[in-house]
Amino acid sequence: MISPRTLRNLRSELSRSLLAKLGIAILAVILFIALFAPLLAPHDPTEQDLDNTNIPPLGFTATENQTTSEMVDGEVKIVEKQVVVNTTAEHPLGTDSLGRDVLSRTMFGARTSLLVGLFGTAIAVVLGVTVGITAGYYGGRIDDALMRFADVMLAFPSLVLAIALIGLWGQASLRLPDPLVASGIASQTMPESIVLPGTVIAVVALVNWVWFARVARGEALSVRDQEYVKAARSMGGSDLHVILKHVLPNSLTPILVLATIQIAAIILLESSLSFLGFSGAQLSWGFDIAQGRQYLSSSWWIATVPGLAIVAAVVGINLIGDWLRDALDPGIEGQGGAS
Amino acid sequence: MTDPLVRVDGLEKYYYENDTLLDRLTGAEPEAVRAVDGVSFEVREGETLGVVGESGCGKSTLAETLMRLREPTGGSVTFDGDPVYDLSGDDLDAFRRRAQVMFQDPFSSLDPRMTAGEIITEPLAIHDVGTVAERRERAETLLEEVGLSADQIDRYPHEFSGGQRQRIGFARALAIDPEFIVLDEPVSALDVSVQAQVLNLLADMQAERDLTYLFIAHDLSVVRHISDRVAVMYLGEVVEIGPTEEIFESPQHPYTKALLESVPRADTDERDRVVETIRGDVPSPRNPPSGCSFRTRCPELIQPPGLDVPQATFREISDFRTRIENGDIDVDLRWEQVGDANREDRAAFVDSLREEAFDEPLPDADEETVREAIRALADGDRETAAATLRERYRSPCEAVEPALPAGDHPDACLLNEQPDDVEAAREEWEAEHDASGVGTPSQ
């Protein structure tokens, strides 16, 4: 399906573009961390250590107001003291308000974000492309019906729609045993399962499929009138044959480009949902930001570190999207700003 | 003579505008675009029937409707005795194997994401013929047969030139051993030198495999080169059909004559020949002329009985009348040009428009009729102006619709032999028109 010419374009665009290389590097690092989080993380991300809360990252200092009771002259007094909290190499990016290691949490949070981003986008692509190609290929009333429905979906703000759907369906999630932990490669103290937030994935897909439907419909409309489609039909090719062999392969390029951009958008949406507490995820960048929000004035790192992780992931994916867009189809305009 | 392989009978394909949801809700009458408007012909086994006509005359729609890529509005197509539009299941499958199409555009007719081999074997894959290895072998053989080399089988279309792409398209049409191939302008996108090669390939394959062709083109020399018989199309209708040499040597229909006239010739005697192009544009198929569809441009428009003006004059008068009837004359603008804001100097208006519309001298009686019409126009009465001209200059060509008579070389023109019912209709019209007292322009 990918022709040598396409590969050549991808390569030449990659060698020309520094940003594309940067994007690939960023995403590769994040993917690596997400895959091997149990091996890489210094601590169990859920392990609490109430003696070591709000430790700042290495190289920073923080003071904390401590309230203690002391015996002074035979009287019990409440004393407020400013204490300097020491950084420790054990928690290079510090700890949060419950003493959990911020670095470990951010590493494990990458899993949630990427799982939701990839699965959510995959479902959205399948759904959107099916609807869009059906509408574009058949046209007429089928097109009217499907695309008006899609327009109605578009009319809802995606976050509101997502929250409403989660409210409707609850927060179902699937726990898959982590193969690295189960096989004993990683330390047994790490969380033994990967949480697949099913509802969130379904919801972000339902919120985002419309974009794919619109792009796929447009592509199908133009491919439908190509002579090779007429040729296939004159040979006796069924609609299914024409769609699978001709319409779909020739519609994929802009869909691929849109998909990379949508992964970023979906990661953001997942973070928003986690931040607002709707996703049910306990180990996610958005959730950590929400946790850290109330400590922002004193312990800024709790929210900032996962926030930077989101920025890195979104920027990296968008850079890859730009690269694909430039390499595959110089004619297509940015579809960004989706959702 | 054996039965024809393909028989097209009264085929019609209309497209409807004003057919969106809103139009349906508001009950707007859908407007028909008559792309193919009652076409009948036969294609005999083993022959090549050429179809020529200007752009937009419905040639390609005819090809696609004939192949049942579009549903017809009316009429029928019979393929080897079977009604094509009633086929289903296995019978339709068989038709799809026996009849193939080769398209015009060397770029869009091949899927850019398939290799030459995949493209050529697609019909085999669709009809589940042979194993993958057998199909590949077949594709290699076909590539060689159409003048490419077997080791190009894994290349993509963009690696081929336009002529080579058309060869691949032809190989695809040949892959499943069809009997009938519709060639929809197969060489019109190619350079002249490449055209000849591809045409020769088409001719060779036809001889070798006993193929029947329907060859669609707008280039007369190409059609002459390859066709046994030629059908000339104008505005969705066949106006003349006959053996190639007869069509080219003694064309009967004025449109065919004009079409042949308009071709530049490579002959020193012809150097100073003024190429007579056909005047005007093809009328919109949305609203085709009544009667003969070529009458708005015909250099041999028939005059009503009793009228005898020079042909060029009659043509000018008819064109002028058409402009009035269609509202193409801007009366306000004309008054402005005359420079009379109060619209009192009617004579100046009449002179101005008279000079603009006519190059030919007008006989006295006709001068008076034309001026009378323009005077009505100056008063803003378009209806009367049109009626004045219509009464005197109405041609049988606009009242009687010509048809193709039977025979080997029929043409649809009232000047020539016509079927009995058309002749009868014309006689009836002329008798009626004569009685209405033509020749004395009313004052």
TrEMBL record, chain A:
Pfam families (UniProt xref): BPD_transp_1 (PF00528), OppC_N (PF12911)
Record-annotated membrane-spanning stretches: 20-41, 114-140, 152-174, 194-212, 255-278, 298-320
Organism domain of life: Archaea
Membrane topology: Multi-pass membrane protein
GO CC annotations, alphabetized: plasma membrane
Chief localization: membrane
InterPro entries per the UniProt record, alphabetical: BP-dependent_transpt_permease, MetI-like, MetI-like_sf, OppC_N
Domain ABC transmembrane type-1: 110-321
Name of the protein in its database record: Peptide ABC transporter permease
Organism classification: Archaea, Methanobacteriati, Methanobacteriota, Stenosarchaea group, Halobacteria
TrEMBL record, chain B:
GO MF annotation list: ATP binding; ATP hydrolysis activity
Nucleotide-binding listed as a keyword: yes
Protein name in UniProt: Peptide ABC transporter ATP-binding protein
Keyword Lyase: no
Compositional bias segments (type: Basic and acidic residues): 423-435
Classification via SUPFAM superfamilies: P-loop containing nucleoside triphosphate hydrolases (SSF52540)
Family that this chain belongs to: Belongs to the ABC transporter superfamily.
Biological process terms in GO annotation: peptide transport; transmembrane transport
InterPro entries, per the entry: AAA+_ATPase (IPR003593), ABC_transp_ATP-bind (IPR050319), ABC_transporter-like_ATP-bd (IPR003439), ABC_transporter-like_CS (IPR017871), Oligopep_ABC_C (IPR013563), P-loop_NTPase (IPR027417)
Region (Disordered): 401-443
Domain ABC transporter span(s) in chain numbering: 6-260
Annotated keywords: ATP-binding, Nucleotide-binding, Transport
PROSITE patterns: ABC_TRANSPORTER_1, ABC_TRANSPORTER_2
